[in-house]
Every structure is written in structure tokens, then in C-alpha cells.
């Protein structure tokens, strides 16, 4: 019976059916299944499959985003039970991400956030046109490991540098890894402003984030 | 001196992907969306205007829901035709529905250096050099800011860019790099200095301004306020949707047209509510996202369809259209750039878009290439010739000459041939040489284009600006540089 429900969980993620995923999560709680086991053997299995198919070019970005949403819906249902049992899901790291002040380009940053969360990071997406102070406040609040700054305008790129300087001024530079990206941003710019990581696209951003978590 | 600007006029045939019923349905769907879903206008000034005209405004989310009648009435006050004036009146561009003009693309962030071929960050000198090259090219009617002047302060960069173009070309300038009211005020002031005062600028707007909408169904506050400042000064103002099927718009092209249309016409309506009769234009560069990576494609069959369909919509609203064509993801001036830029530009030209943006950028509008700039001009020249169609009259039927030559023989020695041969298209960049010649040199169209660009830059002298005026512009820029960034 258990394998059936795990299979259904995986399938709900693969199909990107978030109501179904949430329903199965509730059922797991009713049935007394350990939420961590439900996540690992059910939902994550589905996510892994979608990730593989996406990498192979068989599934498309909307498949991936829908799967991630279904996964999120399931976890939201399981969280109270995890809290009750005093357990927590293992995450690769916590990331605060957003597009810097003065810039409203949304898609690239959203994609990076989505892929990071699909790959096991806890992601707080602050949206676009985000004041630098808001990044810092949120990062402190959620004890983030990584702060991701996106910018697509040459006129707002400067905010990435200002942010690194602001972290230094606040004496918290060593607490966070800073990851930067966006159309005009290059590896050499990232090095110039003293950021910790850079990627030209979303899959690369996941690799970069994993590397940063491993202290690289 | 710049020569005559080449445009497409009186085409012999047209491409119209939408039927009249299609257009009507898209229009009605658009009005439904504006009235019931709403469009975000995150600017206090814009929201006040909408409120004053009876639209339903949610101040918390900045969402405006405007009744169909309000939008339709506002759009009716937009002038159907107007002229983009140039510093040199010979280079004025009538946007009268019977001309297609090409501009440079913008606003790139890197340049393939004309000498070294290396890719590097763009700077002010690039803006000046590209403007000077564009000044010499007859296919180019007007300028966008081609690349970003990254060696100038962020808060005045857009203004340095404008002055660099004026200093190097007497053609019309349309800026797409101004996104705050503060910059717009300064730009108007600079344009007034060049035009000879506020009234002269209003009568002969040597500057126009293009803003992006923020798909889906939103505007950018700063851009809106900049546009209002420009419209108030009499500068033509356009709003461009870059709705992308699958990511910022529905995955169906019809749905993408609706979302983009709602953004553009709501913004144009706002300009009309604020300044009835202000010259405005529709601008569009819709695309479809790359379903595998989510990347921006800019170039593909859907784009080509959008290119022609958008003009049908702009015509329906009786406003000029500025269409994104020449859009490619290619990294070099190669096969991909040729295919994407030819087809997008053909579709936009064959539907008579008023302005085409633009020549010269590669890699999704990020990297400037002089080679691509000249090759794009050639694409336009080819399409221009195609749309001239086939003239059928007594002279062109050539019956007398046919009889004179008779069967076999040839037409090389005919007066009729000499009289008409120059109306056949003349190749500049295709490689039509013998194989041996190519094999010895192994060069090709980008190399020919590069040589031409180098030659232009080495020799072309634009119609200069009065020295006192240049100095005044420079002084004003220095004053602005010294201001605290807003
Ligand atoms: C679509 C688009 C828009 C849309 C955005 C819609 C939306 N909802 O997001 C709209 C129409 C709103 C828009 C507006 C403007 N735009 Co725009 N836009 C683009 C365009 C064509 C594609 C961007 C995009 O969505 N790409 C798809 C995503 C998936 O890719 P991406 O954003 O690059 O993100 C990837 C990587 O960069 C990286 N990445 C991104 N962020 C991060 C963060 C981290 C931490 C990491 C590790 C990686 C990473 O991973 C992402 C996923 O693979 C680009 C050109 C281009 N090719 O980039 C111009 C571009 C960025 N825009 C540009 C300009 C000038 C503007 C405007 C100023 C125009 C105007 N006058 O209104 C306004 C800006 C207003 C403002 N204040 O911000 C210029 C900027 C260059 C410059 N000179 O500064 C560009 C380069 C185009 C051009 N040549 O003119 N734009």
C-alpha cells in the first residue's frame, strides 16, 4: 500500500498537479507516514525524474516549474507534522534572491530561484526592484547562506558592488556568500566587485550555489 | 553629409496574417482584459490620472481597470500620422503609414571591437562611432542608443549617450535608455537646446522616446513618468511590449498578442488622457520563450508572425508602429543571424511597420557588431527591392527589344538593357566570386562588411553641431554629473 502512495506522490509531481500532491500529503499525515519518508520516497522521487527529463530536453521548463509548485504544496502540508515530530527537512542551503533596486527584470531571477528550490535549496524570492537593505534584512532574518542578486541593466549593476560593500560595512561579509548574475554581468565583473559566485544561466547557478555550500 | 534616407514606400504587395474578424476579436479580448483583469500602473501620477478619468483604481496593487469606452475614446485623440524631425530637416521621417524606416538597435552592453575583433564592455566612444557610421548609411533612418556608455556615471549615462549621438549624426534620435522622470526632464532640456527652445522642439521633435511595458499586464513606474514628461514636451512617445509566449504571456500567439496589446494600448491611452493629441506610437517585440531553458529567443517563426500582426493592430488603432525586427540570438554574423533577421524584417516590412528596430545587435540584443549592422542594412535593401514588386507596363514588357533580339542571341547589346539594368538589385556583400578567389582568401560577407565599416569610420564627416551648442550641452552634462544621483 505504501509503495502505491509513494508512486502516486511521485506521479503528482511529475504531472505538476498541486492539488493532488497536497491531498496525498494530507493522506500521508492521516496514515501516519513519516513526512520525511513521504518527501524522500514520494515527492522527491518525482522531482528527480522531472529534473532528469528536463536535463535530457524531454521535459520543458513549464513542466519543471509546475513540478516544483506541486512539491512546494506537498511540503507545506507536511510542515506542521514535521514540526510536531520535531524533525526538519534537510535542505542544501538557504538562499535569498531578488532583482536589485531600479530594475524590474523578473524572469531570469525567478528561473534561478525555481531551479535552486527544485534542487533542494530553501529559496526566498524577494521579487524585483528590491532595495539593498531588504536583501540584508531578509538574509539576517532567515539566516541565509547565499544572497543572489540579479540585474539586467548596466545602470543598476553598480548596486551589486554597493551591496558587497554594504555587507562589509555592516561587518557581516563573511556570513553570506554573494552570487550575482543577469544579462550584462560577466565573470570578470563578479571578480571585480568581490562577489563569491557568478553564472550565466540557471543550471550554472545551481552548480555555483552547490559549490559555495561546499565552501568553494 | 548624410545621403538620402532609404525607406520602403508603395509596396506592390502586403502580408496580413490576421483577418478582420481576428483583429476584432483580439481587440475585444484586449478591452475585456483591461476592464476586468486590469493593468498595473505603479506610479502615483499615472494612478491619479486614471482615477480622475473614472477608471477603477486599486491603490494597494496599483492595478487599473478601465472601461472599454474610456480606452477607445482616449485612443481616438492620438494623431494617426506625425513626423520624426531630424537635426537636418532633409532627414525628417514622415510616419504616415506609407514609409518603413530602419533604426539602429539598442541598448547593447558589449561590442565586437572593429579593430581587434575582441568582445569588450561598451563605452561612450562606441556610441559616438556607431552613430557616425549610422549617419553615413542610407538605409538607416534614425538612431536608438546602440550601446550603453558604461564609462559614464549611471545617473547621467542616458544623457551622455544622447549627446554623443547628436554630436555625430544629424538624423532623428529615439532614446530607449531613459527610465526616470528626472532623466527625462534633463533630456527634454538638452533637446530644447539642440532644437532651439521648447516651441521649436514641439514643432520639430528631434527626439522621441520609447519605453517598455512590463509583461504580463504591467508598466514600470519610472518609465511611465519619464514618458509623461516627454509627452508633455511634445516628444513622440511609444510603448513596447516584449511579451514572451510561455513565460510572460500565454503560450498561444493569439493570447500573447492580447496581453501585449492590453499593455500597449492602456499606456497609450494614459498618454492621451494626460495630453490629448500627443504623438504616440505602438511598439512591439513579442517573442516565444525557449521552452527548454526559459531563455529569451528573439527570432523564430512566432516572432515573424508577431511582426506582421502587430502592424495590423497598430493600423487598427491608427497609430504608427515601431517593430522589433533584426532580432537574433546568434553570437556572430552567421547563418542564424541571416535567417532570423531576414524573415523578421521581411514580415514587418511587408506589413508596412513604420519603424524597424534595429540593425547591429547579436546575442539577444546584447552584443554590438558593425559587421551585422552593415549586413542588416543589406537585408533591408534586398527586402526593399522585393517589395517594389514587378512593374508590368509597355516598357517593362519590352516587346520591341524581344523582337529585336529574337530567338537565341543575347540582350547584352540592347539599349533597353542599359536603360533598365540599374534598377536590378546590386550586390554588396554576397560572395559571388570564383571559387579560386575565395579559396585563396577564405573571407566572406562579414569581412566585406567590416572593411566597409572601417572605411566609413575613417572617412565619414557628419554634419557637425555648432561649437557653442556643443559646449553648452557639455556644460549642462557636467552640471548633471555633479548632482547627487536621484
Ligand atoms: C524581456 C526583457 C525585458 C522585459 C522584462 C519582463 C519581465 N517580466 O521580466 C521588459 C520589457 C519589462 C524589459 C524592460 C526594460 N529593459 Co529589458 N530586456 C529584456 C530581454 C529582451 C530579455 C530578458 C529576459 O527575460 N531573459 C530571459 C531570462 C531567462 O534570462 P536572464 O534574465 O538573462 O537570466 C538568466 C541569466 O542572466 C542568469 N541570471 C539572471 N539573474 C541571475 C541572478 C543570479 C544570482 C545568478 C547566479 C544568475 C542569474 O540566469 C538566468 C536564467 O538562465 C533583455 C535582453 C537579453 N537578451 O537579456 C533586455 C534588456 C536586459 N533590457 C534592456 C533595457 C534597456 C530595458 C529597459 C530600460 C527598456 C526601457 N526603456 O523601458 C527596461 C527596464 C526598466 C527597468 N527599470 O528595469 C537592456 C539592458 C541593457 C542596458 N543597456 O542596460 C537589454 C539587454 C536589452 C537591450 N539591448 O536593450 N526588458
UniProtKB/TrEMBL annotation, chain A:
GO terms for molecular function: cobalamin binding; cobalt ion binding; methionine synthase activity. Signal peptide: none annotated. Pfam families: B12-binding (PF02310), B12-binding_2 (PF02607). GO terms for cellular component: cytosol. Residues 1-90 form the B12-binding N-terminal domain. Belongs to the methylamine corrinoid protein family. This is Trimethylamine corrinoid protein.
Automatic annotation (TrEMBL), chain B:
GO terms for biological process: methanogenesis; methylation. Belongs to the trimethylamine methyltransferase family. Gene3D superfamilies: Trimethylamine methyltransferase-like (3.20.20.480). The keyword Protein biosynthesis does not apply. It holds the Pfam family MTTB. Keywords: Methyltransferase, Transferase. The lineage of its organism: Bacteria, Bacillati, Chloroflexota, Anaerolineae, Anaerolineales. It comes from Levilinea saccharolytica. This is Trimethylamine:corrinoid methyltransferase. It comes from the Bacteria. GO terms for molecular function: methyltransferase activity.
Amino acid at each position: 500500500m505504501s509503495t502505491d502512495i509513494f508512486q502516486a506522490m511521485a506521479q503528482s509531481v511529475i504531472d505538476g498537479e498541486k492539488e493532488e500532491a497536497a491531498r496525498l500529503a494530507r493522506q500521508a499525515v492521516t496514515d501516519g507516514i513519516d513526512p520525511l519518508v513521504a518527501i524522500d520516497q514520494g515527492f522527491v522521487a518525482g522531482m528527480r525524474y522531472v529534473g532528469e527529463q528536463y536535463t535530457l530536453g524531454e521535459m520543458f521548463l513549464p513542466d519543471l516549474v509546475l513540478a516544483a509548485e506541486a512539491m512546494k504544496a506537498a511540503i507545506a502540508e507536511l510542515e506542521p507534522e514535521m514540526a510536531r515530530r520535531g524533525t526538519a527537512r534537510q535542505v542544501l542551503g538557504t538562499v535569498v534572491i531578488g532583482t536589485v533596486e531600479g530594475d524590474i527584470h523578473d524572469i531570469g531571477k525567478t528561473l534561478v530561484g525555481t531551479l535552486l528550490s527544485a534542487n533542494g535549496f530553501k529559496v526566498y524570492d524577494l521579487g524585483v526592484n528590491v532595495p539593498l537593505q531588504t536583501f540584508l534584512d531578509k538574509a539576517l532574518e532567515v539566516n541565509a547562506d547565499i544572497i543572489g542578486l540579479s540585474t539586467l541593466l548596466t545602470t543598476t549593476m553598480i548596486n551589486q558592488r554597493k551591496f558587497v560593500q554594504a555587507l562589509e560595512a555592516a561587518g557581516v561579509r563573511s556570513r553570506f556568500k554573494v552570487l550575482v548574475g543577469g544579462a550584462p554581468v560577466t565573470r570578470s565583473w563578479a571578480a571585480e566587485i568581490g562577489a563569491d559566485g557568478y553564472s550565466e544561466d540557471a543550471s550554472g547557478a545551481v552548480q555555483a550555489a552547490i559549490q559555495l555550500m561546499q565552501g568553494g | 553629409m548624410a545621403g538620402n534616407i532609404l525607406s520602403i514606400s508603395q509596396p506592390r504587395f502586403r502580408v496580413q496574417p490576421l483577418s478582420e474578424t481576428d483583429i476584432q476579436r483580439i481587440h475585444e479580448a484586449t478591452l475585456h482584459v483591461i476592464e476586468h483583469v486590469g493593468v498595473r500602473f505603479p506610479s502615483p501620477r499615472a494612478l491619479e490620472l486614471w482615477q480622475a478619468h473614472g477608471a477603477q483604481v486599486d491603490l494597494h496593487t496599483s492595478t487599473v481597470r478601465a472601461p472599454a469606452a474610456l480606452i477607445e475614446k482616449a485612443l481616438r485623440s492620438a494623431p494617426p500620422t506625425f513626423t520624426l524631425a531630424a537635426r537636418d530637416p532633409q532627414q525628417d521621417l514622415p510616419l504616415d503609414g506609407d514609409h518603413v524606416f530602419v533604426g539602429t538597435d539598442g541598448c547593447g552592453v558589449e561590442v565586437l571591437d572593429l579593430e581587434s575583433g575582441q568582445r569588450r564592455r561598451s563605452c561612450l566612444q562606441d556610441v559616438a562611432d556607431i552613430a557616425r557610421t549610422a549617419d553615413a548609411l542610407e538605409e538607416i533612418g534614425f538612431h536608438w542608443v546602440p550601446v550603453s556608455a558604461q564609462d559614464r556615471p549611471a545617473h547621467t549615462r542616458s544623457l551622455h549617450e544622447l549627446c554623443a549621438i547628436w554630436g555625430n549624426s544629424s538624423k532623428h534620435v529615439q532614446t530607449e535608455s531613459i527610465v526616470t522622470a528626472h532623466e527625462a526632464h534633463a533630456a527634454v532640456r538638452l533637446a530644447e537646446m539642440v532644437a532651439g527652445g521648447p516651441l521649436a522642439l514641439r514643432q520639430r521633435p528631434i527626439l522621441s522616446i520609447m519605453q517598455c511595458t512590463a509583461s504580463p499586464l504591467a508598466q514600470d513606474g519610472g518609465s511611465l513618468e519619464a514618458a509623461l514628461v516627454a509627452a508633455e514636451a511634445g516628444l513622440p512617445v511609444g510603448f513596447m511590449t516584449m511579451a514572451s509566449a510561455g513565460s510572460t504571456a500565454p503560450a498561444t500567439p493569439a493570447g500573447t498578442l492580447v496581453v501585449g496589446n492590453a499593455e500597449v494600448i492602456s499606456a497609450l491611452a494614459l498618454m492621451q488622457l494626460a495630453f490629448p493629441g500627443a504623438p504616440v506610437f505602438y511598439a512591439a517585440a513579442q517573442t516565444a520563450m525557449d521552452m527548454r531553458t526559459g531563455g529569451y529567443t528573439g527570432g523564430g517563426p512566432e516572432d515573424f508572425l508577431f511582426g506582421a500582426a502587430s502592424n495590423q493592430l497598430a493600423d487598427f488603432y491608427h497609430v504608427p508602429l515601431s517593430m522589433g525586427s533584426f532580432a537574433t540570438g546568434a553570437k556572430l554574423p552567421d547563418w542564424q543571424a541571416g535567417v532570423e533577421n531576414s524573415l523578421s524584417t521581411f514580415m514587418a516590412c511587408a506589413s508596412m511597420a513604420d519603424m524597424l528596430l534595429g540593425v547591429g545587435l547579436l546575442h539577444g540584443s546584447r552584443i554590438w557588431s558593425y559587421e551585422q549592422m552593415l549586413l542588416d542594412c543589406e537585408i533591408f535593401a534586398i527586402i526593399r527591392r522585393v517589395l517594389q514588386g514587378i512593374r508590368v507596363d509597355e516598357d517593362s514588357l519590352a516587346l520591341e527589344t524581344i523582337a529585336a533580339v529574337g530567338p537565341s542571341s543575347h540582350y547584352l547589346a540592347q539599349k533597353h538593357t542599359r536603360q533598365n539594368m540599374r534598377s536590378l538589385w546590386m550586390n554588396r556583400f554576397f560572395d559571388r566570386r570564383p571559387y579560386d578567389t575565395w579559396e585563396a582568401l577564405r573571407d566572406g560577407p562579414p569581412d566585406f562588411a567590416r572593411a566597409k565599416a572601417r572605411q566609413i569610420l575613417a572617412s565619414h564627416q557628419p554634419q557637425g553641431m555648432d561649437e557653442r551648442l556643443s559646449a553648452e550641452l557639455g556644460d549642462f552634462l557636467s552640471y548633471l554629473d555633479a548632482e547627487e544621483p536621484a
